[in-house]
Amino acid sequence: MTSGICVIIPAYNASRTIHQVVASALKHVEKVFVFDDGSTDGTAATASEAGAELIKSDVNKGKGNALKILFQKAADAGYDTVISMDADGQHDPEEIPHLINEHALHPDDIIVGSRMHEKEKIPRGRYNSMHVARFYISFCANQFIEDTQCGFRLYPLSLFQKIRLTKERYVTETEILMKAGDSGYIIRPVKIRAIYDDAGSHFRPVIDVAAIAAYVISYLQIKWLKEGLTSNRPFTYIPNNLRDRIAKHKNIDLLYQFIAVSVTLPSAVVFFLGYILLSPVFNNYVLVRRYYGGFFRILLASFMLPVLLIVSISEKVLKVMNIRFKLVDALIQWAYPNHWIPRK
Ligand SMILES: Nc1nc2c(ncn2[C@@H]2O[C@H](COP(=O)(O)OP(=O)(O)O)[C@@H](O)[C@H]2O)c(=O)[nH]1
Ligand SMILES: [Mg+2]
Predict the structure, then answer these.
(1) Distance from the CA of 195 to the center of ligand 2, in angstroms?
(2) pLDDT tens digits, residue range 164-192?
(3) How far away, in angstroms, is 295 Cα from ligand 1 center?
(4) What angle do helix axes 328-335 and 124-140 make, rounded to 10 degrees?
(5) Which residues have a beta carbon within 5 Å of ligand 2, which is an ion?
(6) Span 5-200: which CATH code?
């Protein structure tokens, strides 16, 4: 049993699994906090029965909101480190010691579970979107992150004094990694099992993926503008920066994200030119230069995004017509390689 570390679980209609998750987690930590987010299926009572301390909301506000409240709750209770886990049984509490052991070796770092080594167990569409997401999110975070979409993580709570969270629902966890990495934190993977048995999901493949993509693209554009014009300054995040201030106003944020996504390709060309032409003057994009392909691969990857969309839709249409045609996986592997120079 490790003191100073607690487990936090955002939960929404998870009565089938929450008892087992809480009870097993309590074998490894002294305290488990569960945030019940307006569940209608008895999640709250089941979590309490299993021994969790419960926080309850009557209306559903999504995973991001729940996590923010849980970080605060854990800090108020005197913990300096939290482990976040999903409520639906997709994370095995018996693997909590893997995160704790890695934390003991690297107490200042963020530890993130990675399922990417178990590709065959992850639904194909999910794996592919995780692969593309990590390509871009890694550039936001100035380092390669193996699995950017895994919610089984260990955070030092001091992190949340250094970054400001502005996004909601499933975007929050991506925002945390980007801002942490972009302010100098090291993000370390630990291998965990990928569990996709029969867990239902609240994740909406189109809306939630689009929300994450729009935030990542709109974040990167401000970051790369700064990085392109300054020398050797890869860590561009400071709380309440321009991107955070835009995010404060919902409608302005939506409009800005729409414009940012619309100009993805021309802006990639501009940054690429800045990468080539300004580097003798400014020692710019220093961490992009730790990526073997440099900005040329980023440019190529960005131009592949619309191609990928067309090929994915074609695959789906052909499938309906009973014609099997699988090009997307190969295209993704080719266009979004993860060739980062390893950290020493
Ligand atoms: N508090 C809260 N937690 C949520 C909500 N939606 C999802 N979660 C948590 O996030 C985890 C992952 O969400 P899920 O819908 O399973 O997405 P997936 O695992 O990525 O398919 C769930 O197991 C819950 O722990 C929500 O609306 N409120
Ligand atoms: Mg799930």
Answers:
(1) 9
(2) 999 999 999 999 999 999 999 999 999 99
(3) 35
(4) 20
(5) 88, 90, 199, 201
(6) 3.90.550.10
